[in-house]
Amino acid sequence: MSSSLLLTLLTLCALTTPLVAMPAPTCRFHGYLVKESLKLLRQLGGRDFPGSCLPYNHNISFPDSAFPQASANRLQCHQALKVIYALLEGVELILANSTCPSTWDESTLDTFRNLQDQLLDQGHCFSDRGSSELFSAYFNNMTTVLEQEVGSECGWAVLKKDLVTVLDSALHKYHKCLK
Ligand SMILES: *[C@@H]1O[C@H](CO)[C@@H](O)[C@H](O)[C@H]1NC(C)=O
Ligand SMILES: *[C@@H]1O[C@H](CO)[C@@H](O)[C@H](O)[C@H]1NC(C)=O
Ligand SMILES: *[C@@H]1O[C@H](CO)[C@@H](O)[C@H](O)[C@H]1NC(C)=O
């Protein structure tokens, strides 16, 4: 590889992952990045969960059972991280393909998405087709609501609420797995 091509590639990498100086040597989920994601989500804006959205909330039910009961061993940790990965991946697909609500702060959203790219990149070994399938009904329902003009506000509210809830509880329950 010519050195100028290498330089171009390195520059590209530096541009796409501005918060990481070097590629992560191992595949892992960094707890501090998850914590930072949660903080950004809470700063995104939008109202507290609107009461009028409760019916949608019931129709979009996050598959909690995908999570292992405990974080006592490596197997359970691996399963927990696979579920978090599938959730973040699905959310990123939706965000990449939609217009987010105008009530959300654009620069916070950009920073959040940048962070998600890093998390997905660094945790690539937790990518798992089985987990994605578990979430397919969830994301299909979510997409359906987001595509309705009347329901889209609720779709976004549910998406944000579920993400905050799951990341918050994962940070507590699986803190040993999220080094
Ligand atoms: C929830 O799902 C039920 C059954 O599919 C449907 O009849 C109802 O209209 C849905 N509610 C909303 C708010 O989408
Ligand atoms: C998706 O929507 C259908 C119909 O309203 C409902 O029966 C099902 O429980 C929902 N699944 C998820 C994971 O939200
Ligand atoms: C992206 O949005 C288009 C138009 O709304 C839709 O047809 C397509 O299926 C979406 N792709 C994904 C990956 O969600």
Automatic annotation (TrEMBL):
Pfam families: Interferon
Keywords of this entry: Antiviral defense, Cytokine, Disulfide bond, Secreted, Signal
Domain of life of the native organism: Eukaryota
GO BP terms in the entry: defense response to virus; immune response
GO cellular component: extracellular space
InterPro entries: 4_helix_cytokine-like_core (IPR009079), Interferon_alpha/beta/delta (IPR000471)
TM stretches of this protein: none
Compartment list: Secreted
Main location group: secreted
Single GO molecular function: cytokine activity
Signal peptide: 1-21
Family of this protein: Belongs to the alpha/beta interferon family.
Protein name listed in UniProt: Interferon alpha-B-like
Organism of this sequence: Sphaeramia orbicularis
Gene behind this protein: LOC115416546
